[in-house]
Amino acid sequence: xxxxxxxxxxxxxxxxxxxxxxxxxxxxxxxxxxxxxxxxxxxxxxxxxxxxxxxxxxxxxxxxxxxxxxxxxxxxxxxxxxxxxxxxxxxxxxxxxxxxxxxxxxxxxxxxxxxxxxxxxxxxxxxxxxxxxxxxxxxxxxxxxxxxxxxxxxxxxxxxxxxxxxxxxxxxxxxxxxxxxxxxxxxxxxxxxxxxxxxxxxxxxxxxxxxxxxxxxxxxxxxxxxxxxxxxxxxxxxxxxxxxxxxxxxxxxxxxxxxxxxxxxxxx
Length: 268
What we know:
Blueprint: E1 2-5, E2 11-14, H1 19-47, H2 54-79, H3 85-90, E3 92-96, H4 104-120, H5 124-131, H6 139-144, E4 146-150, H7 168-173, E5 175-176, H8 181-193, H9 199-213, E6 217-218, H10 227-261
Antiparallel strand pairs: 1-2, 3-4, 5-6
């Protein structure tokens, strides 16, 4: 995964496509282009057979080759901001090295080099360059300043805060007030990212948040409780209590609605 820093100093994480995904998307594009080219050859050969001068027929066939192999891919990539049939199937997109959308200049450079890399050399040059490149770039990508990015990335499931076993008896009897929304968000974000923090920062942040949360919780946790475990117990207990409260409220609302529908004037 690569990172890009925008002009507003925001770090974006962009996952580059694997070599296998790029190879398969390229294969799909090449097969579709060859099928389209053979279809044009068939139409030209059957429609204009004997009607035109042989030199003119060859010129039309050459124009068809240039149209299918260069003009159409460049136009599609420019208009769709880096897409093609193969990339659409594989969930990929061509982007600039800074993460921006490709323009005509980048698409044209890639298209011209694709004629050499993929068609004239049967993909051997593209294979040798991409297999040893960190982002699976081929020569056209290096000259154009682009690479293939994965668009369809499976979202990681949200982390679930687990109640520490040693604090279950205390949490069941604790009086936990409503935490301010900013404090609740900071505590939830800390628990989600704690494993990726350095130990000193993790300890300091956990202690600071536990001190703030303790103003809304009574009684204090058992002596010797780790601040991070205390936060996990409080957040897990709040979640479970909110879920139980909302579930009971939903049941009561359903019962009231059922009684109202049974009243005599309900059918009038």
